[in-house]
Design goal:
Single-stranded DNA-binding protein; Primosome_PriB/ssb; OB fold (Dihydrolipoamide Acetyltransferase, E2P); DNA-binding; mainly beta; about 10% helix; NA-bd_OB-fold; DNA binding
Length: about 100
């Protein structure tokens, strides 16, 4: 089995790095990836993909990335769920 995602898109906000209790760096960003084809109205649509980056790469992204920066990344697709106020929430994100 194989789980690989390759994306090229623009950052929707300036990345902010946080450090976990275990002293690991993590940065969560959203990138906008244009679709190949235009809609019927003639406009190009985009998908917004949540991305999680760990370690040295998270530090580099937080240092050099800014809103609108074009980035390329590869990683794997991850799904998880959590419960809040009695409701189950599902999250799909790319682990870069």
């Amino acid at each position: 089995m194989y789980n690989k995602v390759i994306l090229i898109g623009r950052l929707t906000a300036t990345p902010e790095m946080v450090t976990t209790a275990n002293a690991k760096s993590v940065t969560r960003v959203t990138i906008a990836v244009n679709r190949r084809f235009k809609s019927q109205s003639g406009e190009r649509e985009a998908d917004f993909v949540n991305v999680v980056v760990w370690g040295r790469l998270a530090e580099t992204l937080a240092s050099y990335g800014s809103k609108g920066s074009l980035i390329s990344l590869d990683g794997e697709l991850r799904t998880r769920h959590y419960e809040k106020d009695g409701q189950k929430h599902y999250v799909t994100e790319v682990l870069a």
